[in-house]
Amino acid sequence: MVANNRKEERTSSSIGDHPDHDQQIASHNMTMAPRKRNRHALGFLCCFGGSDLPEINLKDNNPLQFLEFSVPIPSAEELNARFAELVDELDLTDKNREAMFALPPEKKWQIYCSKKKEQEDPNKLATSWPDYYIDRINSMAAMQTLYAFDDEETEMKNKIVEDLKTALRTQPMRFVTRFIELDGLSCLLNFLKSMDYETSESRIHTSVIGCIKALMNNSQGRAHVLAHPESINIISQSLRTENIKTKIAVLEILGAVCLVPDGHKKVLQAMLHYQVYAAERTRFQTLLNELDRSMGRYRDEVNLKTAIMSFINAVLNAGAGEDNLEFRLHLRYEFLMLGIQPVIDKLRGHENATLDRHLDFFEMVRNEDDLELAKRFDMVHIDTKSATQMFELIKKRLKHTDAYPYLLSILQHCLQMPYKRNGGNFQQWQLLDRILQQIVLQDDRGEDPDTAPLENFNVKNIIKMLVNENEVKQWRDQAEKFRKEHTELMIRLEKKERECETKTQEKDEMMKTLNKMKDKLQKESLELRQTRDQMNDLVVQLSEFSQGGSISFSPLPPPPPGGPLAVPSSMMSESLPPLPPPLPFSTCPPPPAPPPPPGGPPPPPGAPPFFSMGMPLPTTTTFSSTGTSLKKKSIPQPSHPLKSFNWAKLNEEKIHGTIWHEIDDLKAFKVLDLEDFEKMFSAYQRHQKEMGSTEDLYLSTRKVKELSVIDGRRAQNCVILLSKLKLSNEEIRRAILKMDEQEDLAKDMLEQLLKFVPEKSDIDLLEEHKHEIDRMARADRFLYEMSRIDHYQQRLQALFFKKKLPERLAESKPKVEAILLASKELIRSKRLKQLLEVVLAFGNYMNKGQRGSAYGFKVSSLNKIADTKSSIDRNITLLHYLIMIFEKNYPDLLDIQSELQHLPEAAKVNLVELEKEVNNIKTGLKAVEAELDYQKRRIREPGDRFVPVMSDFITVASFSFSEIEDLLNEARDKYAKALKHFGENEGKMQPDEFFGIFDTFLQSFLEAKQDLENMRKKKEEEERRARMEAMLKEQREKERRQKKAKAGSISEEGGEFDDLVSALRSGEVFDKDLSKLKRNRKRSGNQALETSRERAVTKLNY
Fold it and tell me: Given 1.20.58.2220, 3.40.50.300, 1.10.1510.10, 3.40.50.920, which CATH number is that of 809-1009?
């Protein structure tokens, strides 16, 4: 062990390795018999078990060389007395003391003289005494509160602490005793408590923990640390650091303390202390987070996770967990509730032998415990996640016992416990859980193996302490009040922010459009002046020609875009008036009006397309086809409005000659119970059929009956929408008239309002009952008041189009630009051209016959490169090989993605859908223009802002749309050129398919490049590991030879703590138990197969 080696070095240095020792000494070759370890119980205290007497054998093959002593050897009695004082300082065990006293007198005197000479050395430094280190560390703790250390000071401070750590390991026992007497442990603990953040993350922190670990490597030091009331708690606080080495050192100390007598409970108390210190939700939460977190560096990550798992296994299986099944189940359940099982499954991916050993031990012990618990209930497995199964087992066990009534009593009182959906009042259940835990875990002496036992508790007082209902209710009411006020303020703020954002956006858009229009105006003005000059020249030449002179026409420059100029005869002698600006969409005829929506009336003639909603035409008297009018019906009138029957009425001129001509419904009225019919189908909504009391009757007479003629489901949905709007009908009407200048109506609300536009049938029914408007239901009144707005549906659609247009343009423009830029990149890319050249060369080289001697290939073939696998290594494809060729001969090609950056976006664009969306925007703009023309012709009511708002909007929107339309035309042309550039048929391949081929190839290219990089890293890692293993093997062999060559090396008890840490780290401490559990598991599995058909569950997932 490393610790033993260090202690041997301490002893050998005491014997005669001083640099000033120049005497010739006898070379005694002594060999010590190995110490036998005696594991008991679960074998965790192996290092504290008894050991046989070490044998020190004198080898006679090398004769003794006599020494020349400067001081004669005293008498045997005096020599033994002096040598006893020296041995006492070395803090050896009784058996090792006996081995030391068994040495020859010459060896004893040599050891004694060497040690005394070292102690009396005048050049001995002050660092040989603990006073020096304690003073320096105290001053460091004081200074770090005043100012931060720089790198040089930090290195110097760290060297001081490292020197102390070395001294605690190598100096004689009196150094450690002196250090303890001067309260050096408190000095170290105070330093840990007073550290600032920079110090806690530095190597100084790790070194201080190392000093405590070195102190615990000594029997007196270890006892002193364990006796200190706060030492383990303060050490646990160091888990808060991000320094991995510090965490590992702390976990090794805590795990080893678990294996020391009376240390296990101190560690559990320390973890509860850390829960409060680190503000954990529950105990061990930080450990599980660290166990699941990825650190980056493989070695550090595995070392930390191994330390955590070794600590968890020590906590679970040492101390009370050594022979107490209930304690192990109790403590393991904490880890399972924190989600340790999925983390363990994830840790298997590290494929580290040491880590896997700890994981195997955790799962083996867990499975054994689960089987043992199941055996108590004559089961193979108990699903502890199923409340039903656990209750049935308890019920079955207690069914015919004296305890069964008490189980029923417990359940009955559980039913009376307060239940709240929001999780309140959980403290009562927490109290019940703690009581049950203590009942299960407490031993016969009343001692609890876990921390925080509940003694002398009073349920009422504890619940009052946890929850003061009156105070909570008072604060809850006040919090609710503040929440409502906050919500109202946030709504007002959001409304103002939306209004400000919209105004700012509209202003920015108008400024951009204005600047673009100025540029366009200047350009067109220049063209206009040039055209006028040309026309004036033509007029002069025509005048000369009409007078009979010969005219020589100079060639005219080509006319500006827009077609040939037609010059009317009235303009030949007159100056030309200025040309009007071009109208938007003047180059193409307007599209036909779309059909009306299903269920709605067809648009009347002359109404604007897309927004039209005709008003009902006035009824006129009609005659039948025979020229005679039908008999006028005398239909009884109901005493109050009835629900409507939504039928399709047959025109009167079509009645003659049908069955309806012979039917007389007036006869039916004579036998119908119209009064009962009115009750059944009244338009009023009756909420109660009967009045149960005089008070109910009084209230019902005061309640106004609601009139509803709209379909019930539609009315209900309309009411839900209005409740979300949180606006009155008048506010909605005002917002629509003002075109929502204050941003009261969000886009999604406008979209929903379009679903509740009153239809013609609704308007007819509502007009019949307009005199009862005060009795109308909320939805009916809303639809009636909205129907009073002229062109309500068209206004609503125009407003929605206005709000939605920026978003639609913002979505469409990047798609158009992606196609345009991707097409340009493909045509211009030199790296792609070179890549295709290499692929063509390889293809022609590989293919023979008709498939060979190709001059080019379809771009779709690029994605088939990865399908060609190597005949040597199936993991290598032609694409991998190409990349290796590029790395060697064409390194510039590896960065081909930089020239084709817009391919991924272009591969997502569906050109058909994009063109459809652009055409829809164009149609919507024309519909808004038509509605704007209509609104300009009519007399506007006060507050109507449709014309000024939409006039500004249509100016900006038309110009913005023209930009994206021109961009789309350019993208089409450039895409067609790209298809032709690569030999693809135009019109047969959409952009998403064409660009998708290249995008898929580039993705495969990147993946193949990453595969090669991973292969290289794996190979380098394997080579590095092989070198490291060879070096470690050589180093272990060298240490073994050195250890074997040293004579008289004595193993001390003081190194047992390091032995314990090392065994815990490697998992050796669990080897014997793991083998035993595996044998038990195999034996139990065979028995289960013979005695039961149930399959044993060996792994649970929490």
Answer: 1.20.58.2220
